[in-house]
Amino acid sequence: MSNPDDGGIGYWLRWQVAICAFIVVGPGVAAACIIIKKSRAAETLYYSDLWKSCWRCLNPLYLLVFRAFALVCLAPVLYGVAAVDGIFTYYFYTQWTFTLVMVYFALGTVISAYGCYWESQNQSPSGAGTAEASLFLETGLDDIDKGGRGIRGTDETVQLKAGFWGYLMLTVYQTCGGAVILTDIVFWCLLLPFQSDEHFHLDVLMGCIHSLNVAFLILDTILNNLPFPWFGFLYFVLWSCVYMVFQWALHVGGISGWPYEFLELNTPWAPLWYFAIAVVHVPFYGMYVLLVKAKYSLLPKWFPGAFVSRSYH
């Protein structure tokens, strides 16, 4: 008979396994259902929000350069970690989140580049922007329905409603906000001081992968004009649930050892640990919500002539 501690059948028949499974799967299923049902009621996003800064005098090219610079800086760090850990690079939640941050900056770079190019064409005397806009809309980066509901007029310009790629970028951004806070706080405050494992000794790579992600994302938040509502918390929950299911699948498949000690099921305290992990998602995401709310409430007061309000939403 299999030893219940070696990942065999006895390991999965423990009473705490069913409770922990519910804590993992339940929030993920609930989040997915709410996203499917309520996504159409989410805050309206316009294409200009994706690539124009919240600072009136900041040329969008600077935001483009920053996003490209962030991507270039993050890539070698992930490569360095992959060179050390090899196939086990994505065994850890940090690498998942770090890669997601890179995806955000990759999307941001491409969309910012297209936005800057599109604006330059629209402002050209030849009026070539009309053809470019049509091509842009056909490729799905922005959409305007035939009834005109995708266009919002203002005193200065016409706002185009964002399409699939715009909402994908926003979804990744909101997921990253909570995930980088979780990974960095847990690493610096819990794992590094208390977990004695070869993967948790501090070196340059470890320091960078647990700091550059949040640093670049916060800097982008200071510059961008994207919303960060509580609705995005659902994406954050779903992201973490997918990672947990991935870990359980690996363990069922015979890969011994959990990446983090608090995921171990061979303890009567496992349900409490899993419940605590689920609960801390709320304050970690809330920290980023407060950061963005402070940005849109304080900066207009401190810099009334330089900060662009999101009041048209």
UniProtKB/TrEMBL annotation:
One of its GO terms (cellular component) is membrane. The chain crosses the membrane at residues 12-36, 61-84, 96-117, 170-194, 200-219, 231-250, 270-291. Keywords: Membrane, Transmembrane, Transmembrane helix. It comes from the Eukaryota. This is Uncharacterized protein. The lineage of its organism: Eukaryota, Viridiplantae, Streptophyta, Embryophyta, Tracheophyta.
